[in-house]
Design brief:
Chain lengths: ~350, ~210
C-alpha cells in the first residue's frame, strides 16, 4: 500500500483553506454578536434556500465519496495555514494538531486509567470533521461548495455516558438540521444552518480574560499570534461562556433524559409507548421552533409569519450558494493510512490562561 | 467472517503511540509513567490488546440486562461476541460503542445504551427500529431490529444506505476507516441499499 501521510496538501487545497478562513472573517463584522445568544456562542444561522436530496441520487453519492477522499488533505492544510494552525492549537491542542498533520481527526489524551482487575483504557477528547450545510441538501448552484473547506467544521464530539453536553454537533443536527431536512419536499425552502464563526468548535480549551493572556498561551503553544479579528472573536467567545467550558443548552439534555424513561418496562404497552414517543417528538419540534425564524420549515410545516423565536441567533446569508473561488477537484486519491506522529519537541509552559 | 485481527493490532499500536506522545504522558512523573508501562505490559502478557480490550463476561452480562430494562431490546448474540473481542473504540471520527460504565466510572468509549437513548430521542422514528452500534462522520451503524441485519445509515437522512453481511464485516469496515487503511478486500458497493446481505466477503463499503 502506498503511504502518503507525510505528503503535504496540494496548493489547491491550501488555497481553498485560505479562502475559507477569509470567508469566515467576513461572516460577522461585530465580534460582540458572538455572545448575542449565550446558549450558542459563536453560532450564526446561515439562511440558505435549498431542497433535501434524494439519498439515492447520484449527486448525493458523489458528494459522499468526494468528501472521504479530500478530508485528510483538508485537515493537513488547516494545520499548515498560519491562522488555521493557531486556531487549531487553541481548540484541539498540540496532540490534536499532530493528528491533523497526518490527515486524521484530532483528539487529545485526557488520562489513562485502570479499574481493579481490568485492562488499562485511556480517555480522550474527540473532534470530528462535519459538513455545515449537510451534503443531503441541494443548494441552487452550490454543489461545488458542499465539499469545500468553507463548508467544513471540526467539532467536539466527546460523549461521557448520557452526558452529551460536550457534543455540539449532535445538538445542531438533532435540533436544527434534521427537523428542517428529513421530510423531503418538492420545492426549495429556506433552511437555517447553524454555522460556527470559527473553523473549529468550540474554539478554545482555555478561557482568556485578556488579549495578553491569549498571546502568551499562543506563544507557549509555539503558534504565531492571531490577527486582531480572531483575537477579538476568541475573547468574546470566552466571555460568552464565562471563561468556562462550552456546554450545549441544558434544556436539550433534559429532552434526552426524558426519552430515557420511555422504554422502561412500565411503558412497554405499544399504545402507551407510541403516545409518549409522539409527545416527545412534539416537544423536540417545539424546542426547534424556539430557535428558528418564521419562514423556517419544521417537519414539512412552515412556522409562519407571526412566529417569534425565543432565542435570537444572528442570521446571515453566507453566499455558499455561489461557486467558491478555489474549487476542489473531486478526482482525488483516497485518504491514506496514518503513520505514527512524531513526538513533539517542545513542552508547554505555564501561561496566564485559565484552564477550563 | 472474523474480525480482522491485524487491524485490531494496528489500532492498538496507534493508540499506544498516541498515548506515549501525548501531553498527558509527558506530564506524568517517572514513577507514574513506569507504573503505567508496567500495566500495559501486563495487559499484553495476558493476551489483551493494549488500550483496545474486550469486555469481560460480567460487563457483557450487565450490558444485556440493562439493554433489556432500559431500551427494551434484546442484544443480538453477534454483538455480544464482538464486544468480548473489542469493547468499543474511537479513532479518526469513527466510534464503535461499548459496554456502558457505571456513573462513577470514567467512560472511555461511547456507551451503547447512552448513545441509543440520545439518538432515539433526537430521531424518534428510529426508536426500537435500530439499535445503534457506532457512528462516523458520514454514517451511523446499526442493527436493524425487524430484519436482524446490520446497516449503515446516512447521518443526513437517517435512512439506511448499505446492508452488511454481518457485524464482523461492519466492524472491519469501521476499523479500516479508523486507521485509514482502505486496500483490504472490499464488500462492494455502489452505496445503494441492497435488499439482501451481500454474499461477498470483505471489509469496507465506505470507499468503493
Amino acid at each position: 500500500m502506498s503511504n502518503s501521510s507525510s505528503k503535504p496538501p496540494s496548493a489547491e487545497m491550501r488555497a481553498a483553506v485560505d479562502e475559507a478562513i477569509k470567508e469566515l472573517e467576513k461572516l460577522i463584522s461585530d465580534p460582540a454578536s458572538i455572545g448575542a445568544c449565550p446558549e450558542l456562542p459563536g453560532i450564526v444561522l446561515d439562511r440558505i434556500v435549498g431542497q433535501p436530496l434524494d439519498r439515492t441520487s447520484e449527486e448525493y453519492d458523489q458528494t459522499t465519496k468526494a468528501y472521504v477522499k479530500m478530508r485528510g488533505e483538508y485537515l493537513k492544510a488547516l494545520a499548515l495555514h498560519p491562522v488555521g494552525r493557531s486556531l487549531s492549537l487553541l481548540a484541539v491542542g498540540p496532540d490534536g494538531v499532530r493528528l491533523m498533520e497526518s490527515g486524521h481527526s484530532p483528539s487529545s489524551v485526557i488520562n489513562a486509567a485502570q479499574a481493579i482487575d481490568q485492562p488499562v483504557r485511556f480517555r480522550r477528547q474527540h473532534y470530528n470533521c462535519h459538513h455545515i450545510i449537510p451534503k443531503s441538501v441541494a443548494v441552487a448552484g452550490g454543489r461545488a461548495a458542499i465539499n469545500h473547506p468553507r463548508n467544513f467544521v471540526i467539532a467536539n464530539t466527546t460523549r461521557r455516558g448520557r452526558d452529551q453536553s460536550q457534543n455540539p454537533h449532535h445538538f445542531w443536527h438533532a435540533l436544527f438540521l434534521h427537523p428542517q431536512t428529513h421530510r423531503s419536499v418538492d420545492q426549495s425552502n429556506p433552511i437555517y444552518i447553524p454555522r460556527p464563526v470559527f473553523p473549529l468548535y468550540p474554539p478554545i480549551r482555555d478561557g482568556f480574560r485578556s488579549a495578553e493572556g491569549l498571546r502568551k498561551q499562543l506563544a507557549a503553544l509555539g503558534a504565531t499570534p492571531l490577527p486582531e479579528i480572531w483575537e477579538g472573536r476568541i475573547l468574546e467567545f470566552s466571555k460568552a461562556t464565562g471563561h468556562k467550558p462550552y456546554s450545549v443548552p441544558k434544556q436539550f439534555h433534559e429532552l434526552t433524559q426524558g426519552f430515557g424513561e420511555l422504554f422502561k418496562k412500565e411503558n412497554r404497552d405499544p399504545e402507551a409507548n407510541q403516545a409518549v414517543r409522539d409527545k416527545l417528538a412534539a416537544k423536540a419540534e417545539t424546542f426547534a421552533a424556539e430557535w428558528l425564524p418564521g419562514d423556517a420549515c419544521i417537519n414539512g410545516k412552515t412556522l409562519g409569519p407571526n412566529h417569534q423565536p425565543k432565542h435570537q441567533l444572528p442570521v446571515v446569508e453566507s453566499g455558499l450558494t455561489t461557486k467558491p473561488s478555489n474549487k476542489i477537484s473531486e478526482n482525488r486519491k483516497r485518504q491514506e493510512k496514518r503513520v505514527r506522529p512524531p513526538t513533539p519537541a517542545r513542552r508547554l509552559e505555564p501561561s496566564q490562561s485559565v484552564r477550563i | 467472517m472474523n474480525l480482522n485481527e491485524k487491524l485490531l493490532r494496528e489500532l492498538s499500536d496507534l493508540f499506544l503511540g498516541d498515548l506515549r506522545s501525548s501531553e498527558y504522558y509527558r506530564g506524568l512523573g517517572a514513577d507514574d509513567r513506569a507504573n503505567l508501562e508496567k500495566q500495559l505490559a501486563r495487559d499484553a502478557a495476558n493476551g489483551v490488546r493494549p488500550l483496545v480490550p474486550g469486555a469481560s463476561p460480567d460487563q457483557v452480562a450487565k450490558l444485556c440486562a440493562q439493554c433489556e430494562a432500559e431500551l427494551g431490546v434484546t442484544l443480538p448474540a453477534s454483538l455480544l461476541l464482538v464486544l468480548t473481542v473489542v469493547d468499543g473504540f474511537v479513532e479518526n471520527g469513527v466510534s464503535l460503542y461499548g459496554a456502558d460504565r457505571e456513573p462513577t466510572e470514567e467512560e472511555t468509549v461511547p456507551g451503547l445504551i447512552a448513545q441509543n437513548l440520545a439518538l432515539w430521542s433526537a430521531f424518534p422514528a428510529t426508536a426500537q427500529k435500530y439499535l445503534f452500534v457506532g457512528d462516523s462522520e458520514l454514517w451511523f451503524f446499526a442493527y436493524e431490529i425487524p430484519t436482524s441485519t446490520y446497516v449503515a445509515i446516512s447521518r443526513s437522512t437517517v435512512s439506511p444506505v448499505h446492508r452488511f453481511s454481518g457485524l464482523e464485516a461492519l466492524v472491519n469496515d469501521m476499523l479500516a476507516q479508523a486507521i485509514g487503511r482502505f486496500d483490504e478486500d472490499s464488500e462492494d458497493t455502489s452505496g445503494a441499499l441492497q435488499s439482501q446481505a451481500p454474499k461477498l466477503p470483505g471489509t469496507d463499503f465506505s470507499l468503493n
